[in-house]
Design brief:
Helix content is 19%, strand content 44%. The protein is an alpha+beta fold. It starts with a helix and ends in a 5-residue tail after the last strand.
């Protein structure tokens, strides 16, 4: 019996480095935590400089990009985009969010077999859409949810659904940590 317990403990210790661990990133006024379901040393996190943009009507927003790039495999990557508006936005209903995502993907000439659905993300109403990127044959996923009336989170992923994307959608948590930034 002791031999079985010892072997089980040894197997667990050997597997521990392979178990995925959550990651945490801070960019601008946001703290983002997530777990891709793969070890954090299998990908690198790249944070872009914030980009401030002004629309024709004078509406200003700042975009914060977090890119997750797999260290092996050119197509495995994800991006988390946080958009902070200076003025409140109308929050679309969940059905409208899925329609917006589907419409966005339909405008692209390189994505086919598009499907969209409502989905809760980070305890918020959101939507997810998938499509096949042609000519590579890679499945791509896009998601959106509103953190508040001034903060939008969008996610794009080329990680396979069961090997990164689903886990990311289930575990992402965005917290606004500095209201003045």
């Amino acid at each position: 019996m002791r031999l079985i317990i010892t072997m089980a403990l040894l197997a667990l210790l050997i597997m521990m480095p392979c178990i995925a661990e959550p990651d945490s990133v801070t960019t601008g006024p946001y703290k983002v935590t997530f777990d891709l379901g793969i070890p954090t040393d299998a990908y690198k996190v790249e944070i872009a400089e914030p980009k401030i943009e002004e629309s024709l009507s004078g509406e200003i927003h700042t975009t914060f990009n977090i890119e997750l790039v797999n260290k092996t495999g050119l197509s495995r990557r994800a991006i988390i985009i946080l958009i902070s508006y200076e003025t409140e936005q109308i929050i679309p209903l969940p059905g409208e969010l899925s329609e917006i995502l589907e419409y966005y993907l339909l405008q692209r000439d390189d994505i086919y077999n598009i499907d969209a659905a409502e989905r809760e993300i980070d305890s918020h109403d959101g939507a997810v859409a998938s499509g096949e990127l042609i000519p590579l044959g890679i499945d791509t996923y896009n998601a959106i949810y509103y953190l508040s009336s001034t903060d939008i989170v969008t996610i794009g992923s080329a990680y396979p659904w069961e090997e990164g994307t689903l886990q990311l959608l289930k575990t992402i948590h965005v917290e606004k940590i500095n209201e003045t930034a």
